[in-house]
Design goal:
By secondary structure, the chain is mainly alpha-helical. Helix content is 45%, strand content 0%. The longest helix is centred in the middle third of the chain and has 10 residues.
């Protein structure tokens, strides 16, 4: 017999049902702590370019010194020196 999806009567015995923290790739303690905090944790982090509506939240917009590879204090000092 080929393994596939479990029957509806057996769904409560699956690994995802018995140990949901394993399916989300985190420790049991972290999973319970995040559940208690009410935090919604995405299962897969989003990757790639941000959408146009989120452009103001990008690293370049919030921390331009990180893009240039310098510290915040150096960046601010150089901004003050500009005419």
């Amino acid at each position: 017999m080929k393994a596939g999806r479990p029957l509806d009567s057996q769904k409560h015995t699956t690994l995802t049902a018995t140990k949901p923290w394993v399916a989300e790739g985190m420790s049991r303690r972290t999973w319970y702590r995040r559940r208690a905090d009410g935090a919604v944790v995405p299962t897969k982090p989003k990757r790639g370019r941000p959408l146009a509506r989120d452009r103001d939240k990008t690293l370049v917009a919030t921390k331009p010194w990180a893009k240039l590879g310098m510290s915040e204090s150096t960046w601010r000092r150089r901004q003050e020196k500009r005419p």
